[in-house]
Write a structure and sequence with these properties.
Elements lengths: L1 E14 L2 E6 L2 E7 L6 H13 L3 E2 L5 E3 L1 H4 L2 E6 L21 H18 L3 E3 L6 E16 L5
Parallel strand pairs: 3-6, 6-7
Antiparallel strand pairs: 1-2, 1-3, 1-8, 4-5
Helix pairs in contact: 1-3
GO cellular component, one term: cytoplasm
Family: Belongs to the DTD family.
Subcellular location: Cytoplasm
Length: 149
């Protein structure tokens, strides 16, 4: 399972002009399930995401986690993170989980996030979304949890 997280001052997702999720300070997490991923990779990714120390402490050092600051988490499904651009000019998405499995793992990830963290908002799986954000820093970090072999 993979993600790109962005430390934000604020972020929101709109679908058809309707806001589906909105946060102030926190993390915008674009999340992608890949073929072979299981709940184990989702759990590891979420645990790392919530504890990653990328927020500033009183001395201005990145020493605090999302949980430490009590910030929001905006989770957005993003199968295009699995794009393979090595051949030709059209990306291949064969590494992404099949849509049904992708939805199941995304829903699992969101449910686990809501159990572990107080402020969780979402986009809408497989929808045409407009994502608005003010990146703080900017701090943008790719994350990947590989399936166990």
């Amino acid at each position: 399972m993979m993600s790109v997280i962005q430390r934000v001052k604020q972020a929101r997702v709109e679908v058809g002009g309707r806001i589906t999720g909105q946060i102030d300070q926190g993390l915008l997490a674009l999340v992608c399930a890949e073929r072979g991923d299981t709940e184990a990779e989702a759990d590891k990714l979420l645990a790392k995401m919530l504890k990653l120390r990328i927020f500033s402490d009183e001395a201005g050092k990145m020493n605090k986690s999302l949980q430490d600051i009590g910030g929001g988490l905006l989770v957005v499904s993003q199968f295009t993170l699995a794009a393979d651009t090595r051949g030709g000019n059209r990306p291949s998405f064969t590494a992404a989980a099949e849509p049904g499995e992708g939805r199941r793992l995304y829903d699992y990830f969101v449910n686990q996030a809501r159990l572990a963290h107080a402020q969780v908002q979402t986009g809408e799986f497989a929808a045409d979304m407009q994502v608005h954000l003010v990146n703080d820093g900017p701090v943008t970090i790719p994350m990947r949890m590989e399936p166990q072999v």
